[in-house]
Amino acid sequence: MKKILIINGPNLNLLGRREPDIYGYDTMEQSLARLREKYPSLPIEYFQSNHEGAIIDRIHAVGFDTDLYAGIVLNAGAYTHTSLAIADAISAISLPVVEVHISNVSSREPIRHTSLISPVCRGVIAGFGMDSYRLAIESLL
Ligand code: DQA
């Protein structure tokens, strides 16, 4: 079975502690354990960085490996709303990328209503809490 790469952007290393009223109490490690339990034969890789360039480097590193990867699940955090560079990286690669948000960004502050990456992603899943990651994986299987 091909792999899925989940990439989380800035501040998502703080899940479980960060604004739990918005992002919940689960850590990413707990959510990953649940996903791996649900899909035992699916290799799920995980990468998190608070640095835009590191996220781009990782997208480049796997982005043409269509033999090994089914796709990328990307929660770019606040870079969603600002990073033309990440959008360009997504455009450049061959793998499909699904944009994910834990919160419903459309119901939050207006600045979060704009995504620079949505136009170059296969689709967007937002607002289902940590289950957004599972729904994104489903869309790539
Ligand atoms: C987020 C939404 C973004 O607006 C925010 O900057 C994040 C998390 C989400 O998962 O809901 O860091 O991507």
Please explain how this structure is put together.
With about 140 residues, the protein is α/β, with parallel strands linked by helices. The longest helix is centred in the first third of the chain and has 11 residues, at about 30-40. It has a 5-stranded parallel beta sheet, with helices on both faces. The protein is built from 5 helices and 5 strands. The model has no long low-confidence stretch (mean pLDDT about 95). 1,3,4-trihydroxy-5-OXO-cyclohexanecarboxylic acid binds near residues 77, 102 and 112.
Please tag this protein with its features:
5-stranded parallel sheet, alpha/beta, 141 residues, binds 1,3,4-trihydroxy-5-OXO-cyclohexanecarboxylic acid, 32% helix
In brief, what are we looking at here?
The protein has helices at 20-23, 28-38, 52-62, 84-92, 131-140; strands spanning 3-8, 44-48, 69-75, 97-101, 123-126. Helices cover 32% and strands 19% of the residues. The model has no long low-confidence stretch (mean pLDDT 97).
- The SS-based structural class is alpha/beta
End-to-end C-alpha gap: 9 Å
The proportion of strand residues reads 15-25%
State the helix count.
5
Largest sheet: 5 strands, parallel
Order of H and E elements: EHHEHEHEEH
Strand order of the largest sheet: 2-1-3-4-5
Mean pLDDT: 97
Topology:
Blueprint: E1 3-8, H1 20-23, H2 28-38, E2 44-48, H3 52-62, E3 69-75, H4 84-92, E4 97-101, E5 123-126, H5 131-140
Parallel strand pairs: 1-2, 1-3, 3-4, 4-5
